[in-house]
Write a structure and sequence with these properties.
Strand content of chain A: 15-25%
CATH class of chain B: Alpha Beta
Distance between the termini of chain B: 18 Å
Number of strands of chain B: 5
Largest sheet of chain B: 5 strands, parallel
CATH superfamily of chain B: DsrEFH-like
Number of helices of chain A: 4
Number of helices of chain B: 4
Structural class of chain B: alpha/beta
Number of domains of chain B: 1
Oligomer: heterodimer
Order of helices and strands of chain A: EHEHEHEHE
Strand order of the largest sheet of chain A: 4-3-2-1-5
Shape of chain B: globular
Strand order of the largest sheet of chain B: 4-3-2-1-5
Largest sheet of chain A: 5 strands, parallel
Shape of chain A: globular
Radius of gyration of chain B: 13 Å
Helix content of chain B: 25-40%
Number of strands of chain A: 5
C-alpha cells in the first residue's frame, strides 16, 4: 500500500475538481492506501462547519468524516486562506486540521504519489 | 519517467500534452475532458487521440454524467472507474499531472 497526497486549489464546494478529489480519496482509502488531502483557496470552504445537504448539491461532510475515521485519511485546510475568507478555527469541522502550507509540503515529501489539482 | 495526466477540459490543456517528453504517458479524460472521446468536430474525432505511444482512459462516472454511453466512446480509449484510477496511479505510473 502507499500514500497519495492530493492538493486541491479548487473552486467552491460544488466544483468538479473538489468532487473529484474527494471521490479519488475515497477510492484510494477503500483500496487500503493512505491519503492526505490539502485544501487551499476557495477549496477551504469544504472544511467549514454547518454545511447542509441538499439534493443535487455536492455535499462531502459525511464522506470526509467517514474517511477520517479510518485513521488513514488526513485532511488539512490552509489557515491563511480560511481566515482571508472570514471563517476561523472555531468554525472548522472537527476532523479537519488547520495548517500553514508547510503541512502540505511535508506531506508531498513523504508521499508515494502527489496530485495537485488546480482551480476550475 | 512514467506520467499519467488528467485532462479535465475540452478546449485547453491538450497543447501542454504535446510538449511532454516521457517514457510512458497515460492520458485520463475526466470532467469536460470527456468530450474528447465522445464528440467529433467536422466529422473527425479529437486529434489528441491520434497521438502515438499513449494509453487513453476515460472516467466512467463522467462519461455517463454527460450522457454518453460507455460502448459509444472511441475504441482507443479504455473506460475506468475511480478504483481503476487508484491502481493506475500507484502501479502503472510514477508522476501525476492535472490539466
Amino acid at each position: 500500500m502507499g500514500k497519495l497526497t492530493i492538493g486541491t486549489f479548487a473552486s467552491l464546494v460544488g466544483s468538479y475538481a473538489m468532487d473529484f478529489a474527494v471521490k479519488l480519496s475515497e477510492a484510494a482509502i477503500n483500496k487500503g492506501h493512505e491519503v492526505d488531502l490539502w485544501l487551499s483557496g476557495n477549496a477551504t470552504m469544504l472544511s467549514k462547519k454547518g454545511q447542509k445537504s441538499f439534493q443535487d448539491y455536492s455535499y462531502h461532510l459525511k464522506t470526509i468524516e467517514g474517511l477520517s475515521s479510518t485513521g488513514r485519511f488526513n485532511i488539512a485546510t490552509c489557515d491563511a486562506c480560511s481566515e482571508a475568507r472570514g471563517y476561523h478555527k472555531d468554525d472548522t469541522i472537527s476532523c479537519c486540521k488547520r495548517n500553514t502550507m508547510d503541512w502540505y509540503l511535508a506531506s508531498c515529501f513523504t508521499a508515494d504519489r502527489v496530485l495537485m489539482i488546480g482551480g476550475d | 519517467m512514467k506520467i499519467i495526466s488528467f485532462l479535465s477540459h475540452y478546449r485547453h490543456g491538450a497543447d501542454i500534452l504535446e510538449r511532454i517528453k516521457t517514457t510512458k504517458l497515460g492520458i485520463v479524460f475526466v470532467g469536460n475532458g470527456i468530450y474528447h472521446v465522445g464528440v467529433s468536430e467536422n466529422g473527425k474525432p479529437s486529434p489528441l487521440l491520434d497521438k502515438k505511444d499513449v494509453s487513453f482512459y476515460a472516467l466512467i462516472d463522467d462519461i455517463e454524467t454527460r450522457g454518453f454511453k460507455i460502448e459509444g466512446i472511441d475504441k482507443r480509449v479504455k473506460p475506468v472507474s475511480y478504483e481503476d484510477l487508484v491502481d493506475l496511479i500507484f502501479n502503472e505510473y510514477e508522476k501525476v499531472i492535472w490539466l
